[in-house]
Amino acid sequence: MTTFLLPREPISTLDAYLATEHGGRGLEEARRLGPQATIDVITRSGLRGRGGGGFPTGRKWSSLASQTGTRRYVVCNASEGEPGTFKDRALLRSNPYQVVEGLLIAAFAIGASEIYIGIKGSFQPEIAAVTRAIQEFQTAELCRDCTVNIVSGPDEYLFGEEKAMLEVIEGKPPLPRLLPPYEHGLFSTSPQEGWEAGPRSPGERTDEPNPTLVNNVETLANVPHIIARGVEWFRSMGTRESPGTVITTIVGDVVAPDVGEVEMGTPLGAVIDAVGSGPLPGRQIKAVFSGVANPVVTAAQLDAPVSYEGMSAIGTGIGSAGFIVYDDTACMVHVAYRLSRFLYIESCGQCPPCKLGSGEITSLLEKIEAGSGTDGDLGAIHGWLRRVTDGSRCYLATEEQQLVSSILRAFPAEFAEHIETHACPRPETRPIPKLLDLADGHAHYDQTYWRKRPDWTYEEAAE
Ligand SMILES: Cc1cc2nc3c(=O)[nH]c(=O)nc-3n(C[C@H](O)[C@H](O)[C@H](O)COP(=O)(O)O)c2cc1C
Ligand code: SF4
């Protein structure tokens, strides 16, 4: 297996990192090349964002560098809230130095003098690892012209949405603002377009958009390797459209859930076998989801390559490559209900069709699963699916639309069976795989999640 991001043994000191063949060389090389040439290398490498959207990283850096504005910022998205995903935490635990080096290169390339790392307050081992790495870079004077701040944020899924992350860094709740970070960046004094629109104080400046670059942990971890080893080396792995490797998480109905680094373009079934040790004995894979952000992959599609173009060819997306596997004992109506409920709970409610629609869809799915649903309920779900994205200011509503529609399309017989027999033929429940830890083949899910209410408070635990 090709690995360069996940070392065999964790790297826990800067000295150990600098003693590796390429540790620290990327930053050195970037300073030698200069900002524009550094951006050019990242562009030519074909690196694409690993946070879920797959946006070309060089193009993002280039557009940030060409934005006007008095100040620029770099934000590392380390909030990892996608169900079934643990790769950023695995990276921060095993080598936080490459992420810090990637951040320093990004700041140098776009001309930012301040960096923020947005990370969940509950990720204590990762906060400790990245804090130590930053302090060591500072002591070694490798972090000369840049301040690095760690902002610990809430457990909500939306904290990872980039427009919400900027709100959190500014001390507010994780409610996505309207404009993207490159237009309305951190501490911007341009007219407020966020959820907290209001009059400004007299004399306050209103002309500083502060364009802000937001990149995922894994995206940034790739950067020093690419700058140090070159475009040819990076492009020698993966496919033409998806060069490099990807860190995947495999959880659900598999023998040993785990995180692993694979070359882009490896077939999904082979990734499930290599990283998660395959399905349980005697079981067949029925469905796979890339987190909760993309349409379902069915058993017939397991040969599809894990790459941007490979997943897109079968009508889905690679997302953050956290794959949730369900075998032939799973009820797909139940799965649809659980995943839809997650999105309903996490929706912030700024756009009424998103919160109301995902809530209605979730209740109707629960009703069908319980055996009391009708064809009319199925029709109502389709109706809400058409409207749930109306006026949405972030992608969460689209996730609900794509995910639920794809399950309805792929497994119509299971819905019909519940409606006709007034019962669930496979009444085995599955938890929402919101990962707290993943080690030694065991996935630890958040057992309190079931008590989370749509207003983000928690029901009292039963005695
Ligand atoms: C609801 C929602 C949750 C998200 N959660 C994360 C997350 O936990 N981590 C992450 O890096 N990106 C997350 N994203 C994507 C970010 O908005 C953003 O696209 C990404 O951080 C950009 O980095 P990249 O270009 O390096 O991929 C989320 C997006 C949405 C809509
Ligand atoms: S689309 Fe949904 S989650 Fe996103 S801002 Fe609107 S209400 Fe909130």
Secondary structure: elements and pairs:
Blueprint: H1 14-19, H2 25-33, H3 35-45, H4 57-65, E1 73-78, H5 87-94, H6 96-110, E2 114-120, H7 124-139, E3 147-153, H8 162-169, E4 212-216, H9 217-229, H10 231-235, E5 245-252, E6 258-263, H11 268-276, E7 285-290, E8 297-298, H12 308-313, E9 322-327, H13 332-346, H14 352-369, H15 375-387, H16 396-410, H17 412-421, E10 435-439, E11 442-445
Parallel strand pairs: 1-2, 1-4, 2-3, 5-9
Antiparallel strand pairs: 5-6, 7-8, 7-9, 10-11
Helix pairs in contact: 2-3, 2-6, 2-9, 3-4, 3-6, 6-9, 13-14, 13-16, 14-15
The structure holds flavin mononucleotide and iron/sulfur cluster.
Taking pLDDT < 50 over at least 5 consecutive residues as the criterion, the unreliable ranges are none
| H and E string | HHHHEHHEHEHEHHEEHEEHEHHHHHEE
Bound molecules: flavin mononucleotide, iron/sulfur cluster
Largest sheet: 5 strands, mixed
Helix content: 40-55%
For the secondary structure, the number of strands is 11
Estimate the strand proportion.
Answer: 5-15%
Helix tally?
17
What is the mean pLDDT?
A: 95
Cα end-to-end separation: 48 Å
Output the strand order for the largest sheet.
6-5-9-7-8
Structural class comes to alpha/beta
Shape: globular
Rg is 22 Å
Structure, described:
By secondary structure, the chain is α/β, with parallel strands linked by helices. It contains 17 helices and eleven strands. The strands form three sheets. Strands 6-5-9-7-8 form a five-stranded mixed sheet, with helices on one face. Helix 2 (25-33) crosses helix 3. The longest helix is centred in the C-terminal third of the chain and has 18 residues, at 352-369. It is globular and about 70 Å long. The relative contact order is 0.12. It binds flavin mononucleotide (FMN) and iron/sulfur cluster (SF4). Flavin mononucleotide (FMN) is lined by residues 49-53, 55, 77, 79-82, 157-158, 160-162, 214-216, 219, 394-396.
